[in-house]
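Hi R.,

Here's the chain you asked about this morning:
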Amino acid sequence: CVVWDLRKNDPIIKVSDSTSRMRCKVVAWHPDVATQLCIASEDDHTPVIQIWDLRLASSPLKTLEGHTKGVLSVAWCQADSDLLLSCGKDNRILVWNPNSGPGEIVAELPTSNQWSFDVSWCPRNPAIISSASFDGRVSLYSLMGGQQQVQPSNSVSDSFGPGLGEVAGQPQHTPQVTCQLKSPPKWLRRPCGATFGFGGQLVSFETVAGVGGAPSKPAVYISSVVTEPELVEASSKLETSLREGNLGDFCQAKLATLGEDGDKSKLWQFIGASFGENCDQQFLKLLGINLDELSSQLKALLEPVKENGIEDEVIEKVADLEVTEASDEFEMIAAQAVAAPEEVPAEAEAPALTTLDQVFSLSKDPTSDQGQLTIALLAGDIELAVDLAIKQNRFAEALILSIRGGQELLLKTQALYFQKAASEDKDVSSVALVEAVAMGSWEKLVEHCGLDSWREVLAALVTYTDSNTKQVLSGRLADRLSADGGDNVVNG
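And the predicted structure, written out as tokens:
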């Protein structure tokens, strides 16, 4: 292989391998390095492709061995120097990466029944490859995957002509194969790019060309882009609080900047309460419900008015008593103690009377309500006695007896009582919370309560339910308030 100077019409250098007697068939120049080229041998005994550098023309840089018979054509991709195309007498079309070590085969294209004597890259779309075969066909291939059609091999049609190998009535299927590279080509790689991260960080990258023919290397840069200093400062404070675990102090600092009024300050008050001790009690106070104050008010209403049994006449003071001739201070103290009046104890309250403290008679008349209840109790049938008391609309007696009958009977009686209360045309507001506390029906309480009393419902959830139930039902209550437009949150 001789390299010529076209301006002088003189040969410059002769490339030949002294170790092998190969016949050069085709030549292709390196698309990026002007001093490198590849030559291919059509000899079946030495079906190799050699990469040469004119600066070191004594021996090839590397030898690509993959064909079993002579190579007929090679083509170097102008868009990616890592892709070299070759076809040979062995009816194979190979895609090489000549720059990777000894050179590897990165893809193999499907072929037709005849050899391909020429291959070429598309100048506009480097992913498209064309090949010309001895059967008069030009085939197009794509390196981006997808299905490629392959002409089926039929020995009968090859020997006797087209059409004789086909069987009438049977469809002819064209096999489909897939061709895809092992790694993305250079024209798909992004030469540069940038993306934003958290905390105002900007990550950018680019491909830096190598010096002296060295391969290019990617470079990554991390820089800070601050467009809102206040936001960056707030983000840094939050990250510090999360790392040190002082979230309560962070909420207090936030409240100091917002003030005590406004919806945002109320929100941060609730958030800060969740990180403190006794968060349930803090939530109730923020909702305007003070349990201690309410309990003291109820006790004051329920305490009976007691009369003070103090007599109007007061005994004369000890100072007015005449104590004379006391030999010493101890005798004076003893004299004052004798002259001091004795305290009058308050009159003890008489115990309240019950039904058993009065005269009564038991009736066993089965036709009367009292007689039916008496018979059931004497028979020891508590459940029957409870049923009779319910039918007679005596729920107080039914609930008291159901306690003696066990937990199951008590729950059944409670449920019947609340059903009876709901069937009456009266306001059930006073009984609804009692039912929720007694029966644990917190889901119904959240689902059917009026939104104007959402604070009281939330206080009941905080007081009586566990943490998991409280979170789930509080979320449902918040969904109802949000669907209503949020007016009750502001005005409630």
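The longest strand covers residues 201-208.

Let me know if you need anything else.
M.
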